[in-house]
Amino acid sequence: MQGRGLKPGGRIKRDFRPLPFNLPIKSNKERMVEMAGDAQQAALQEMEQIIRRYPAERRYILAIMQDLQKKFNYLPKEGLQMTARHVNAPMSTVYSMATFYKAFSLAPKGRVNFKACDGTACHIKGSQVIINEIYRCLGIRLGETTPDGEFSLETVNCLGACAIAPVLVANQKVYAKVTPAAVREIIKEHGGRIDEPAVNE
Ligand code: FES
What we know:
This protein has helices at 28-52, 61-72, 77-87, 91-100, 120-125, 127-138, 180-189, and strands at residues 112-117, 151-156, 168-170, 173-175.
């Protein structure tokens, strides 16, 4: 099909006529700020919806935080503030509960969250080697997330699977008897790119 302005000779005829009305021209930076603002607004609305599902009583703080954690994969500061206001509790109460339970995180986690088991059996069988290899490949230490938000790393205590130690969990998937080479394969399996060469095991 011949496109508009395309002559049989193959040259494109450009149309320099002015636009029919004045469109505001935005820079890429302005568009990105606008998009970030929209996303933040949507997130705040979602937090409010979650919180308003519960009666305004302090005994629901934990349940609200569980729902927020499930939705956002961490507890956003704004969510904690809204929770405190909703149940009329001091922020210090909400914050101390958020930091007391290990199931909650105050920092955003990666799309793929690695949990390296560091219980006794896994420790003896080389959990530190797994942690080191993740650092070598992705540049993250415990409690950190890659700058692109793709991967994060934390440790957990015994997962009850000592027979297959050392154990690594990526989101919900459990990997048994993990070696440094296996770590590299697991990272690739979850969409990671590895530039570091492998070291001899
Ligand atoms: S110590 Fe890791 S599963 Fe038990």
